[in-house]
Amino acid sequence: EAQVTQNPRYLITVTGKKLTVTCSQNMNHEYMSWYRQDPGLGLRQIYYSMNVEVTDKGDVPEGYKVSRKEKRNFPLILESPSPNQTSLYFCASSLGLGIGYTFGSGTRLTVV
Amino acid sequence: QKEVEQDPGPLSVPEGAIVSLNCTYSNSAFQYFMWYRQYSRKGPELLMYTYSSGNKEDGRFTAQVDKSSKYISLFIRDSQPSDSATYLCAMIRNTGTASKLTFGTGTRLQVTL
User: Fold this and answer.
1) Distance to chain A for B110, nearest Cα, Å
2) What are the per-10-residue average pLDDT scores of chain B (113 residues)?
3) Which of A41, A97, A104 faces B94 most closely, judged by CB atoms?
4) Quick check: A19 contacting B, CB < 8 Å?
5) Which of A4, A62, B32, B63 has its CA 20 to 30 A from that of B56?
């Protein structure tokens, strides 16, 4: 089944403790992206990647890192999480520019 | 001012009603227009995708784009309780080497029996 898989689905952590949210797609998509979704603000792009080893900042990149060492994987790294990063995170992938995304099921992160 | 504006709702309609969901945008560089549906505790799923002005129909769903007015709509005919979800409009503009996808904040729809 063609899909984007995120792990974990739920995560509660403490301020400052490094964490990684994994994302993997099995559709051979070039384009991958991370979004966060907050009430009243909608989906905002954190980082995106157009291909292996090519990443760029989205609208809200502060406090996040990404890497794209393989085409299928695009992990999101929070080096020192803070409470304002409590949010619902989505990974998404697309075949290319101008084409609709396939989204993962989301990761609900709480930073206390 | 946000690039994409969408009424958050909630919108409550009886089963069988015609639903109209709308978004306005300010950047004329947007070229591709989409509607996503998001059920509670799920990721958004692509519902409709359009490029040009005009209407596109898929079953009970019709997407309409008016580029001159910077206005897009999604119509749902014969609405069902299973249509209860949040509907997100989304738009893409290409910047040469990258594409930027911008979402509306979503409209929550409740279809009641």
Assistant:
1) 18
2) 86 96 94 94 92 90 94 96 96 78 93 94
3) A97
4) no
5) A4
